[in-house]
Amino acid sequence: MRVLALLDGTLADPESPVVRVDDLGLLRGDGVFETVLVVDGRPRELAAHLDRLVASAAMLELPAPDRAAFDRAVGAVLDAWAGGRELVMRLVHTRGVEGGDGTPTGFVLGSEINPATLRHRADGIAAVTLERGFDEGLARRAPWLLLGAKSLSYAVNMAALREAERRGAADVLFTTSDGLVLEGPTSTVIAASDGILRTTPTALGILPGTTQAALFRAAERAGWVTKVESLRVADLRAADGVFLASSIRRITRVHTLDGEPLTDSAALHAELTALYESEY
């Protein structure tokens, strides 16, 4: 099932054309998006996702997204949804048509969650490390590369996932050319050791994780220490557990890295998942 809403709050047929062929989001990936999990009719971290949509748009020098309009479209999707208790909502904002008057294109699409995502949540995943092709200082030196923006230009991320599949894995942990851990193509990396949760700093040019932030809030209340600091692959191998946090997959454990089994973290995964769910 899919439900499509335009920013004026009206519903559109998801099987019919909505985006023009000369839209710059389609032609050049010149746009931004967010993916929001909805459970039992309640969007998770919607305000944080809208904040990130606005921040990404500013990095691309796009017209600012109309938050009230996106809220209206989200409400329309939720009101019309008649599928399962969980759905994924994609909020899309592009520069609009080439040579147009500058009016951006925006919409919200609700759809079912891929069954593979549910399997990954339950069973964990194998991942591989792949170099992202830049060093730790590039985001600061070259802001025009838009590192840390959630743009529609996801070709590299999708290519990395295909490479992971060729290597017999389901996901990727990107690294810098100087060996620091970054993020996954669609997730934030978390390492757990001795009551400490660690994740990598956004200064490296990665997205601030909404799911990671929710988990850290809950974990701190439960007595965990949380840190944002640089990690290397060796730190992941030595950890009690390695996890990928994302809106739709929630907290997913990595059981194998580059073909080598990691520490069994099934019990720890259950604990962290319960902490994350306690936020809602």
From TrEMBL:
Cellular component per GO?
A: cytosol
Sorted alphabetically, the keyword list is: Lyase
EC no. given is: 4.1.3.38
| GO process annotations (BP) | carboxylic acid biosynthetic process
What InterPro entries has UniProt attached to this entry? Aminotrans_IV (IPR001544), Aminotransferase-like (IPR036038), BCAT-like_C (IPR043132), BCAT-like_N (IPR043131), Class-IV_PLP-Dep_Aminotrnsfr (IPR050571)
Instruction: Write out the GO MF terms.
Output: 4-amino-4-deoxychorismate lyase activity
Tell me the protein family, please.
Belongs to the class-IV pyridoxal-phosphate-dependent aminotransferase family.
Protein name, UniProt field? Aminodeoxychorismate lyase
